[in-house]
Amino acid sequence: MIRFHHVNKHYGQFHVLKDINLEIQSGEVVVIIGPSGSGKSTLLRCINRLETITDGELTVDGVSVGDRKTNINELRRDIGMVFQHFNLYPHMSVLKNITLAPIRVSKASPKEASETAMYYLQKVGIPDKADAYPSQLSGGQQQRVAIARGLAMKPKIMLFDEPTSALDPEMVGEVLDVMKSLAKEGMTMVVVTHEMGFAREVADRVIFMDHGQIVEEGDPATFFTQPKEERARQFLSRLN
Ligand code: ADP
Ligand code: MG
To answer: Which UniProt key words apply to this protein (predicted)?
Structure first.
């Protein structure tokens, strides 16, 4: 579903992604961990071309992300993204936040879009908040709206960039639970998170990044108990 083949990215002189090789299968849940500044967000943002790569090849479902001929809007329709700061439109109701893209981008009828929105609000556990405004919701609820908004476009892939980092601790669980059920349903997910419990339990594969490189990858059981690389070992020991 996603393939990085010798991908490099620079910000000016700064080499932020170094020879990234990574293949993510359909239905796979990949968790990316690593120190702050290691390039995790940049890697994620390359997938939907919020950032452009400098060289190498990056394909999503067989389509070259960097190709001039690639329809970027079509590509992005297939990729939902959830950020640390929920990025909801504050002046729109929850329902409006969720129906906006399906109506504007996918040309859904308002009725159809509302039905889809309610379906996903149900899924994330807050159908009663459809008419509320973001400021009337807790952080956990706002993030669940953001997930519902992503899902309403019926994406093939969901990207999560530290979705629980801005939340009060008591709200982390409700967001992770939604992500867990999404994973169980077979969504292809790439998740940057510091929630190691989630990684252990839900990830098919853990990727450890440092200084723009994939330093180590493996299944969570192996990675968390027997990391091979010194840098990974140090990173994990600092978390405990
Ligand atoms: P992470 O998500 O792992 O914390 P990022 O991908 O956000 O790391 O950033 C990786 C490195 O790239 C950092 O050193 C950061 O300062 C730098 N960086 C990120 N975005 C930009 C940008 N737009 N311009 C220049 N440098 C950037
Ligand atoms: Mg980041």
So the answer is: ATP-binding, Nucleotide-binding, Transport
Smallest CA-to-CA distance from 212 within 35, 14, 70, 39 is with: 39
Q: What is the distance between the alpha carbons of residues 174 and 223, in angstroms, rounded to a whole number? A: 26
Would you say the pTM of this structure is higher than 0.90?
yes
Determine the 3-state secondary structure of 6 from DSSP: strand
Query: Which residue in this structure is represented by tokens 């969901």?
Result: 158
pLDDT tens digit sequence for 130-141: 999 999 999 999
Q: Tell me the C-alpha distance between 163 and 172, whole Å.
A: 9
CA distance 113 to 227: 46
Query: What spacing in Å lies between the alpha carbon of 139 and ligand 2's midpoint?
Result: 19
Which residue, judged by its Cα, is nearest atom 19 of ligand 1?
A: 42
The structure tokens listed for 106 are 């996918």
Provide the angle, in degrees to the nearest 10, between the axes of the packed helices 110-123 and 94-104: 130
Short-list 152, 168, 161, CA closest to 83: 161
Which pair of tokens denotes residue 143? 């993030």
Interface pTM (ipTM) of the complex? Answer: 0.98
Residue type, 83: F
Report CA(164)–ligand 2 centroid distance (Å).
12
Q: What is the pLDDT of residues 88-105, one digit of tens each?
A: 999 999 999 999 999 998
Atom of ligand 1 nearest to the CA of 34: 3
